Amino acid sequence: LISLTGVSKEYEMGDSRIRALDSVSLAIAQGDFVSVMGPSGSGKSTLMNIIGCLDTPSAGSYRLDGHDVSRLGRDELARIRNRTIGFVFQGFNLLARTSALENVALPMLYSGARAEERYARAREALATVGLAERAHHHPNQLSGGQQQRVTIARAIVNRAPVILADEPTGNLDTATGIEIMNLFVRLNREAGITIIVVTHEHEIAQYGRRLIMFRDGRMVKDEEITP
Amino acid sequence: LISLTGVSKEYEMGDSRIRALDSVSLAIAQGDFVSVMGPSGSGKSTLMNIIGCLDTPSAGSYRLDGHDVSRLGRDELARIRNRTIGFVFQGFNLLARTSALENVALPMLYSGARAEERYARAREALATVGLAERAHHHPNQLSGGQQQRVTIARAIVNRAPVILADEPTGNLDTATGIEIMNLFVRLNREAGITIIVVTHEHEIAQYGRRLIMFRDGRMVKDEEITP
Ligand SMILES: Nc1ncnc2c1ncn2[C@@H]1O[C@H](COP(=O)(O)OP(=O)(O)OP(=O)(O)O)[C@@H](O)[C@H]1O
Ligand SMILES: Nc1ncnc2c1ncn2[C@@H]1O[C@H](COP(=O)(O)OP(=O)(O)OP(=O)(O)O)[C@@H](O)[C@H]1O
Ligand SMILES: [Mg+2]
Ligand SMILES: [Mg+2]
Ligand 2 pocket check: which of A44, A200, A216, A219 to mutate, most ligand atoms within 8 Å of Cβ? Predict the structure, then answer.
């Protein structure tokens, strides 16, 4: 489903070159549940942005669902990304001037669903993350953890086959974090959704079946998680 | 130093009323190291915003360093806040179009220090959080954990006597999080700086000497942390 071969990402900053990803090769099958860990700045979000078609590699190739992503035109890439991937961003990325409900409903705009269905499903997703009575709040009227949960609701509402979650529990208390990870386990087990979670907490990584470690842009470990 | 008496904070949303803080009374002395925990939405950030003079209570009173904060004019409040409080925000709050160095130097603009000294101290603060070679990056050229560390550097650069840190390790790997908490311990022990840390991680809360628990806007526990 997801196949990276020799993927690198570099940035030029004046006369220095920063290697955010260094020749990463990685294959993830439909239905996998992968945890990604590594120090701050080791390339995890960069990896997620490339897998999520939000960024392009400097070198190497990326195939998503059989398509060579670098060969796709912008519109086709947007369509494939929108129907294939639900993204929980590290920084939330909510629209500031619209309500939680509108933010969660947004990914369905391209799906052709009618307004009643979009809002019904957005409400359902908000209820799933415990925010039914915050539907009409704007992001600045929500706590940090509530904003993070709106981001999670938005990522699941389209029932996309792949969920990329970049530190989904970083702003959540332990109990709420466990609820979210159990939600991901349910989606993986019952709907066969592929889950990739970036986390720096070992207890959260344990929900996955496979652990990938990054350091300085390189993948340094890829092993099964034994319970 | 910090004295809250019967502090409440309410928001009106249409025909419902949300009680973010419910009659909180709390006294914190200079040199204290306090950890604050509680579920998502329980009022922790609201408390920090009131202590940090970024928000006003709906009821009750708040005295900071002997001043009744509600009696201060806007300019005087800004001056007292700027010299008394270093704030690590839950959402980072960095200026997007300026470098890490400029962001860290910002609180010193009001202190009257000359440019060379402001930039020397900003570089020093960045080095303290391990970001010396990211000084000229803008926030969108930094990882989540790097942005969080720039926020921390900005909070310590003025050597303010109070540091309010709202989930300062939420985006940091375990090793980096420990470095940051050890930095706070040093500042508390060697410079007598008062530290208040909001966290949802028990291991992080253990660095404090006093634990305060919130639930539904109320303080439900206030006890010593025994090692
Ligand atoms: N401007 C606002 N208007 C309405 N409700 C608000 C507003 N700001 C905050 N709230 C509500 O106040 C409550 C407390 O929010 P607060 O940000 O203090 O929680 P918190 O304990 O910091 O949570 P977290 O751990 O998720 O960061 C939440 O239920 C939130 O929805
Ligand atoms: N636009 C950019 N220009 C220059 N350097 C960048 C840019 N974006 C990211 N970087 C650098 O690339 C490296 C990897 O960043 P990335 O965000 O992938 O790390 P991360 O593993 O997600 O870290 P964290 O755990 O702190 O979120 C970092 O050192 C960062 O400074
Ligand atoms: Mg990241
Ligand atoms: Mg908060």
Answer: A44
B27 touches B3 (CB < 8 A): yes
8 Å CB contact between B45 and B87: no
Residues A20-66: tens digit of each pLDDT: 999 999 999 999 999 999 999 999 999 999 999 999 999 999 999 99
Shortest-distance atom of ligand 1 to CA B214:
21
Mean pLDDT by 10 residues, chain B (227 residues): 96 91 97 97 97 94 93 87 93 93 92 90 96 96 96 95 96 94 96 97 96 98 93
Residue type at A14 in one-letter notation = G
Taken as a whole, chain B contains a residue count of: 227
Chain A residues near residue B44 by CB distance under 8 angstroms: 143
DSSP class of B105: H
Name the amino acid, one letter, at A12.
E
CB nearest A170 (choices: B38, B45, B170):
B170
What is the residue-wise DSSP string for A97-160? TS-HHHHHHGGGGGGT--HHHHHHHHHHHHHHTT-GGGTT--GGGS-HHHHHHHHHHHHHTT--
Measured between beta carbons, which residues in chain A are less than 8 angstroms from residue B143? 40-41, 44-45
